[in-house]
Write a structure and sequence with these properties.
It catalyses: (6S)-5,6,7,8-tetrahydrofolate + NADP(+) = 7,8-dihydrofolate + NADPH + H(+). Residues 2-167 form the DHFR domain. Belongs to the dihydrofolate reductase family. Keywords: NADP, One-carbon metabolism, Oxidoreductase. The chain has one domain: Dihydrofolate Reductase, subunit A (3-Layer(aba) Sandwich), CATH 3.40.430. Helices cover 20% and strands 34% of the residues. The chain is built from four helices and eleven strands. The strands form two sheets. The protein has an eight-stranded mixed beta sheet with strand order 6-5-4-7-1-8-11-10. Strands 3-2-9 form a three-stranded antiparallel beta sheet, with no helix packed on it. Bound molecules: NADP nicotinamide-adenine-dinucleotide phosphate.
């Protein structure tokens, strides 16, 4: 199983405000879809709050929602109640090693960071004044392996960088 965290952060590592994203960048939405649908067994893992903010399961992906609520049910998603349960269940899937994409929010990133092999970050070149959730610090145990600069345009209000990090072995 390869575990990747996928996130869009601002210059202060902020990721959200009042259970919404800080900004919508069309380019980032497209990139997110491309990353999380590119393999055969793509699993997206998210917290209950992020799921409610998205509002529906993401198509072409196995959707996992984490909640402590034992009664939580929703069509099209698999519900789990602990990180360990998810890791154990999806180590192998369909006879092969799946790609597990951790897609937020803050509480979920913090718990999966230690297990992650790769980080896909979209760095938004801006500091948002209003933010209440953040991505964990990207420490020196992470090596930047690629960076792509994207200029702001009519569909993307800020310059942004697609950055991929891998855990230093
Ligand atoms: N910029 C980005 O890339 C990005 C991506 C995703 C989300 N976001 C933003 O992040 C914000 C949401 O983040 P958040 O930290 O407030 O919420 P969250 O991580 O999406 O969800 C938190 C909920 O997940 C459940 N949970 C967490 N750990 C668990 C565990 N170990 N076992 C079982 N359930 C667990 C709990 O649900 P219950 O309360 O139901 O028990 C908890 O209240 C929003 O603003 C969203 O838009 C940004």
């Amino acid at each position: 199983m390869t575990i990747s965290l996928v996130t869009a952060i601002d210059r202060n590592n902020a990721i959200g405000y009042k259970n919404q994203l800080l900004v919508k960048l069309k380019n980032d939405m497209k990139y997110f879809k491309q990353i999380t649908t590119s393999g055969d067994h793509n699993i997206v893992v998210m917290g209950r709050k992020t799921f409610e903010s998205i509002g529906k399961p993401l198509p072409q992906r196995i959707n996992i929602v984490l909640t402590k609520d034992k009664d939580f049910r929703c069509r099209g998603v698999f519900v789990y109640h602990s990180v360990e349960e998810v890791l154990k269940q999806y180590k192998y899937y369909g006879g092969s090693k799946p790609n597990l994409f951790v897609i937020g929010g803050e509480t979920i990133y913090r718990q999966f960071m230690r297990y992650a092999d790769r980080l896909y970050t979209t760095l938004i070149d801006h500091v948002f004044e209003k933010a209440d959730t953040h991505f964990p610090q990207i420490t020196s145990e992470w090596k930047l392996i690629s960076e792509q600069y994207n200029q702001a345009d009519e569909n993307n209000p800020y310059d942004h960088y697609f950055r991929i990090y891998e855990k230093v072995k």
